[in-house]
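Late entry, zinc ion complex.
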Amino acid sequence: MVKTGDVISYYQMCALEGMSMRRGMSFRPRRRTSVLLMSVRPGAPYHDQVQDGGRTLIYEGHDNPVPSNGKRPKEVDQEARSADGKLTQNGLFYEAAQAYREGRCPAEVVRVYEKIKTGIWVYDGHYELVDAWTQPSGGRQVFKFRLRLLDDLESPESSRVTLDSTRVIPSQVKLDVWKRDGGKCVVCGSNDNLHFDHIIPYSRGGTSLDTKNIQILCARHNLRKRDKIE
Ligand SMILES: [Zn+2]
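Prediction complete; structure with ligand written out below:
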């Protein structure tokens, strides 16, 4: 089972989702939980933002796959419907956010993965989609989606409770720690089954916002450390 903060390869992510993750937005793929892939790296194709220490994401919609008029994807508005009238991924997520805002259904639950380097992803956890709108960006209209962190859905008694600690590690902190630790477990140098570990656990007041409190551990050393603490 993947945990928030786990570092996984692209192929592991595809295996977890049971499909090839070719697109960044997947609304209820095969009736499963919706998935969004994000990136805040310099040069990322979309302007995603992490706010409130990781509790809020502002996710940018994705460009239409085939621009109709010979223009480049970044030159045309992002559309809610494709030429044949079907809802695009932007449209599907937008409609779900509207339905939630109008009280017609509960918030859409979304699993979020974040790219930190080519082929290297971090599982950021479950979020709920609470708002969506369009806004101008570079001379055209883009979609924006607001997502709010949910507690782990794996544990039913604590589900649908928003965290008040900053457990999710902001992207820049992840990038800095990854660079500092060389993408390896700081104990044994393994580069398999890695996890961003809070040196002082967040449950004991450890911060996610300071690189000094975050390190990379492999699954083995992560478990060993937890046994010691608990
Ligand atoms: Zn290790």
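The chain is about 20% helix and 30% strand. Will revisit in the morning.
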